Structure formats: C-alpha cells, structure tokens
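FORM 12-B: Structure-to-Sequence Request
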C-alpha cells in the first residue's frame, strides 16, 4: 500500500530514469481514510474511480504527474499510458487535467439557469460621474463596469499631438474588490495594458477623430465587479460614456462574447464558463454599418463551428445596441423634461 507522498516520489523517480510513465505496474488503495482508489489504465485513457465513505472526505490520486481530487468520480483524459506508448515528458511539457464537466444539462439549461442562446440581464445608467464630460455604468449579469470620458480637450503632451485627427487614450483597471482574490493588483500590468489597447483600438474605429484635430479624448474604464465578459462590458460602457460626452461617432460599437462548451454554442459567458478553457470569441460590432471592429478568440475551432459561434456573438451585439439606444432615448427625454422643452 502506497501513500500519496510515496506514490508521488516513485512517479518522479521513474520519470527521471526512463522519461516515460509505466502505471500498469502500480496499484494503490486507501490513499485517504475512508476512501478506496482503483486505478485502471486503458490505452489512451487513465480512469480514476474514487468511492467516498464520508461526504466530508476527499480522495486524491497522483496519476502520471496529474494531481486530481474528487468527491464522487473523476475521468482524467491523457495520452496513452501503456508500456508500448512513448509519451515523453520533460520540463517544457505540461499535462492538462481535463475534467469532464457538464456546462449544459440534458434539459438544455446552463449552470446559471439560462438557455444556450440567452444573455444575462443587462442594465445601464448614464451620468454616473458628475465631474466627467461623459460617464456610464454598465452591468452584464454580475459584471459591473464604470466608464468616464474627458474631452475633447487640449493635448497635454505636445509630442503626442496629431495634426489631422484626435488622440484617443484609454486606461483600464480592476478594483481590488472586484474579484474574490483580495491581492493588490499592480497598476499597468500586462493584462491591463492589453485590454486598454483593445478598447482604444475599438473606440478609434467608431469615433470621427478627423473632426477634432489636435485634441485628445481620455477614456477611463474600471471594473467594479467581475463575473466574466469584462472586456465586452468595458466596451459597452465606454460607448455609452462617449455618447453622453457628445463625441461624434460613426455608429454605436457594442461587444459581446460567445463560446463553445459541451458541443453547444453559448452566448455571453460567465466566469465559470469562461474559465473552462474552451473556445471563447469576443466580437465588437457596428450594427448600422454591419462591420466588425473587434474579433478575439482563445483556443481553436473548426471553421463551420466558428461561423456559428461568431454569428451568435453578433446577435448579442445587436441586442445590446438596441438596449443602449433605448437608454439614450430615455435619457434624452429626461433632459428635455428638465429643461422644459
């Protein structure tokens, strides 16, 4: 009978000596008190079955370099682990623990109760920051973003001034309380810089910058609460803030994400679905012009499935654009009422 520690040491020793896995020689049981572990090695699949006697106990199995934990049953998919197979492992190669999880139930419902083509509830508010030229708060489910726009105004750094168009700058940040992790996030990290660049390029595609030469427009976006789709929510909030500031635009640019999990296209992914590691497509769209200003995808997809997933995201962008127009029309009516028009 091998303990978890001795089994792990034995695995590392064999990998260093032969640089391959030979699990068919091993047998382990009762790694955790009250649990029984049966390891069956098949060609191309390592199946770990754990039967838990007490609900409070967890069973752990270190199989071929993979540490798995479960309360009921796990199926870990990997390369062939038989004696004739040659899955060479070195320091540059990492195995991914692919635990099969059901994101869409047999009844066609997702983890949060939505249908695959159903969006989360969206809500928007204009004029959240009084000192800004334009501001907005945009919510997509539990994701909440605030955006503020300053400008057009004189360029602060003369070396960055453009004679024939306006300079658009964008700054993205996440509040320390926006996620469950309370670690202080450094300002200007790589992810924030990348998202700032994405938002700036997306906004430049819709702003009529040639009408405001030798000026600058500053867009500040902060995530107050993150639950997936933060990039799309930031773009939607920035669009509302630009409209509130009176910045001339070709069209309202809206954004939405979609993914492909359990062989099903899903619209508007939340954090759990976004973290599943499946294909994720984020689209920025100009509804009236019928043009795409942003397209980002993680992972790979066949071309026919990609077209369906992208079209689903575009439909979500159109729905968000209709909602933003309703919010702007309602805000305009309130301004007319206050001015007595």
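FORM 12-B RESPONSE
SEQUENCE OUT:
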């Amino acid at each position: 009978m091998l303990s978890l520690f001795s089994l792990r040491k034995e695995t590392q020793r064999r990998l260093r000596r032969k640089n391959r896995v030979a699990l068919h020689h091993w047998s382990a049981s009762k790694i955790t008190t009250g649990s029984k572990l049966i390891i069956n090695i098949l060609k191309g699949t390592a199946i770990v079955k754990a039967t838990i006697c007490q609900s409070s106990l967890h069973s752990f199995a270190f199989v071929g370099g993979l540490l798995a934990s479960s309360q009921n049953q796990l199926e870990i998919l990997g390369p062939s682990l038989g004696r004739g197979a040659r899955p060479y492992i070195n320091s540059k190669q990492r195995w991914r623990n692919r635990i099969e999880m059901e994101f869409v139930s047999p009844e066609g419902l997702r983890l949060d109760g939505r249908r695959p083509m159903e969006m989360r509830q969206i809500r928007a508010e204009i004029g959240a920051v009084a000192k800004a030229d334009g501001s907005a708060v945009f919510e997509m489910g539990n994701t909440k973003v605030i955006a503020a726009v300053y400008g057009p105004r004189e360029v602060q750094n003369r070396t960055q001034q453009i004679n024939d168009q306006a300079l658009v700058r964008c700054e993205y940040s996440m509040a320390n309380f926006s996620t469950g992790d309370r670690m202080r996030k450094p300002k200007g990290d790589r992810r924030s810089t990348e998202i700032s660049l994405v938002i700036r390029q997306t906004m430049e595609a819709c702003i009529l910058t040639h009408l405001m030469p030798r000026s600058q427009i500053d867009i500040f976006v902060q995530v107050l609460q993150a639950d997936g789709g933060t990039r799309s929510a930031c773009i939607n909030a920035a669009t509302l803030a630009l409209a509130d500031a009176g910045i001339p635009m070709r069209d309202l640019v809206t954004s939405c994400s979609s993914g492909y999990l359990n062989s099903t296209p899903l619209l508007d992914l939340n954090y759990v679905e976004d973290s599943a590691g499946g294909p994720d497509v984020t689209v920025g769209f100009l509804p009236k012009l019928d043009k795409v200003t942003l397209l980002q995808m993680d992972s790979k997809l066949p071309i026919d499935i990609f077209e369906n997933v992208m079209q689903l995201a575009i439909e979500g962008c159109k729905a968000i654009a209709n909602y933003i127009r309703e919010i702007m029309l309602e805000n305009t009516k309130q301004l007319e009422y206050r001015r007595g028009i």
